[in-house]
């Protein structure tokens, strides 16, 4: 039986898929892609005659049934998902269903949208002496968030944050971050469709970002980046300091 390949499509730009992901996509007999977020231009890489399914209108059972058919026929099935598989990829339930059927799978990483967004801004999340940690999180929505992971509790650290799946509740995000401890003047950047041709960036602070996002009409496919790494303050790293040893360069 052939195994199933979960492939990270990258954040949008069709050149931001890995070489390995591209190879598998171009060889695939069946591609199941997440149509609500994956750039359809990536399907240009598929071979003629490949069967292509948009998972947006499919249930878990339907997705698994197609994977099972492909595995049993020994043909190549690629499950193409946005960004990287390991970040809000809903891969766990698919993997568990495949295990029940005795079907193996392999995950091919992708460029997550938080990396696409940093690239678009030309910024580093871990600016020396400004922030050395990045919190990837979301506000609770239809999917609950475990109680020890509230935005408010993370805000205590005042470090860099990349907040997924939360733009529809930007007001709630700001309230929790401020209650948790970020000062009102903390910089925020909202990146809509990072690396897509219609990418948009809205910059502001916790004081005004909610109004600016509403004025821009951004309601989905956006990341909320928060923290002083977005500001003007920085320190030089020790890495290229001529007075330090060079073992990590
Ligand atoms: N696995 C994906 C995330 C899927 S969850 C990844 O690694 O990026 C879907 C959420 O990801 C969206 O609600 C949005 O917050 C974010 N997202 C995905 N693609 C994006 C993009 N190109 N620009 C900005 N945010 C994006």
Describe the structure using short key phrases.
five-stranded parallel sheet; 249 residues; binds S-adenosyl-L-homocysteine; 26% helix; five-stranded mixed sheet; alpha/beta; globular
Share of β-strand residues: 15-25%
Total count of strands: 10
**Mean pLDDT level:** 95
Which bin fits the share of residues in helices? 25-40%
Distance between termini?
45 Å
The biggest sheet, with number of strands, parallel, antiparallel or mixed sense and barrel status, is: 5 strands, parallel
Order of helices and strands: EHEEHEHEHEHEHEEHE
Structural category is: alpha/beta
Instruction: Estimate the global geometry from the Cα principal axes.
Output: globular
The gyration radius over C-alpha positions equals 20 Å
- The total of helices stands at 7
Query: What topology, given as strand order, has the largest sheet?
Result: 3-2-4-1-5
Bound molecules: S-adenosyl-L-homocysteine
